[in-house]
Write a structure and sequence with these properties.
Elements: H1 2-11, H2 14-21, H3 23-30, H4 34-60, H5 64-82, H6 88-100, H7 105-116, H8 119-130, H9 132-160, H10 162-177, H11 201-210, H12 229-260, H13 264-290, H14 295-319, H15 322-334, H16 339-350, H17 356-383, H18 387-416
Helix pairs in contact: 1-8, 1-9, 1-10, 2-9, 2-12, 4-6, 4-17, 5-6, 5-7, 5-9, 5-10, 7-8, 7-17, 8-13, 8-16, 9-13, 11-18, 12-13, 12-15, 12-16, 12-17, 12-18, 13-15, 13-16, 14-15, 14-16, 14-18, 16-17, 17-18
């Protein structure tokens, strides 16, 4: 079950991470600019954001089996389309399809955790399954360049398309073997003596992401169109962080090849290193959340580390020192790539299973909106006279805005306390 949950989160991003790892070859073969290449990520994440915002409530009304099958089928179809030699337009269609494949995974996998996994395992499993994106980044960044060397980047995509199909078959077996639990609502623990007055919605909302897993919650009815205000704050943080995350993920391999003269395969390894560290980071941050860490304080720490990473990317480009790039990639994996698990853990504390798909969809829509904006903005900046230096400076500024938002959340929590 844990394998297929991780696979569902990571299946959709396989295409974009793979194309980013061989971006230099694609740009040369198709005769496109860096900004045009960024449109692939924009098409992908725009469709994902729209899908999460508009299809989330639809997902609440469909079975786990149906939604998981759709996720893997769309991911496989998107990769197969890349193999069609029909120019840049077909790549845009494939990218859009892979974005739609990312419309359901967070919601349906969170619901599966609430309905089929014992409460003591849930938060820990959130960290593992949310690391599916970084596992995808790790696999695609290493395997795509190696396969492309033998069969071209189109052939590499066709081979990778088999991965979602295998995961789909595994999902059918796993879901049949894991029955629904007797109680599927979100856990409610013993009240904390210092809990805010539940009659004050502002204070109750602030408690949702600051308390540990034992924090009391008052879930909103599934049919209610209103969500806690803190959920919208999480979505805003996800949007800002998403801009920096995908601006870095999409252009880091190209930066290493163009600015630091890395070979294509080694350029892909930079993203793989970030992905591998991101896997460990998400598991680690999930454990901190499970132990009762304050959500806003963790988000502030992650934002500050991400600022340091952007500064080192800038320094690597200015000095030409490759070792700065490797440290920057490690900081990127540790910080920005770990935000998603903190956001999802906070939702697990405050939203019931009956509304989990839609609430997760709204926060995920915020993240994907940022994912859509980041690559196209970075592409424009990289193509400008300021080049990568200007791009990394703007990424650092975006992470500073994340830090400011986290400070606002901390102050709100302190007022609630």
């Amino acid at each position: 079950m844990l394998t297929v949950l991780l696979g569902a989160v990571g299946a959709g991003p396989l295409l974009l991470y793979g194309l980013s790892a061989v971006s230099d070859s694609i740009i040369v073969d198709l005769g496109i600019s860096e900004a045009q290449f960024g449109l692939l990520a924009t098409a992908c994440f725009t469709c994902a954001a729209i899908g999460n915002a508009t299809l989330a409530r639809v997902a609440d009304r469909h079975s786990d089996m149906f939604l998981m099958t759709i996720v893997f089928a769309l991911a496989a179809a998107a990769l197969a389309l890349v193999a069609v030699p029909a120019g840049f337009g077909m790549l845009l269609v494939a990218a859009a399809l892979s974005g739609i494949a990312q419309s359901f995974p967070n919601g349906v996998t969170n619901r599966i955790l609430l309905e089929r996994v014992p409460v003591q395992k849930r938060i820990g499993w959130v960290g593992i399954k949310q690391s599916g994106v970084q596992v995808s980044q790790l696999v695609a960044s290493v395997v795509f360049p190696l396969l492309a060397a033998a069969a071209g980047w189109r052939g590499a995509a066709l081979v990778i398309a088999l991965v979602p199909l295998v995961l789909m078959v595994m999902t059918w077996r796993a879901l049949r073997a894991a029955p629904l639990l007797a109680e599927t609502s979100a856990p409610v623990a013993e009240p904390d003596p210092g809990e805010p007055d539940p009659g004050n919605p502002d204070l109750a909302e602030a408690a949702d992401v600051t308390a540990g897993p034992a924090a009391p919650v008052a879930p909103a009815p599934a049919a209610s169109p209103r969500y806690p205000g803190m959920m919208w704050a999480l979505a805003a943080f996800g949007l800002l962080n998403g801009i920096g995350v995908q601006a870095t993920n999409v252009y880091m391999p190209l930066f290493s090849v163009r600015e630091l003269d890395f070979p294509l395969v080694l350029g892909g390894v930079t993203a793989a290193v970030a992905g591998a560290i991101g896997v460990a980071a998400r598991v680690g941050w999930a454990r901190q959340m499970a132990r009762g860490a304050s959500g806003p304080r963790v988000l502030l720490l992650l934002a500050l580390i991400a600022v340091a990473g952007a500064a080192l990317f800038f320094a690597a480009g200015v000095t030409g020192w490759p070792w700065l790039l490797w440290i920057a990639a490690a900081l990127h994996g540790t910080s920005a790539l770990g935000v998603s698990v903190v956001l999802m853990s906070a939702l697990m504390r405050s939203i019931p299973a009956t509304a989990m798909a839609s609430a997760s969809g709204m926060v995920t829509a915020g993240m994907f909106t940022g994912f859509a904006l980041g690559p196209v903005a970075m592409g424009v900046l990289v193509s400008s006279p300021g080049g990568f230096s200007l791009g990394w400076a703007v990424v650092g500024l975006v992470y500073l805005l994340c830090a400011l938002l986290a400070v606002v959340l901390i102050r709100a929590a302190n007022r609630a306390a």
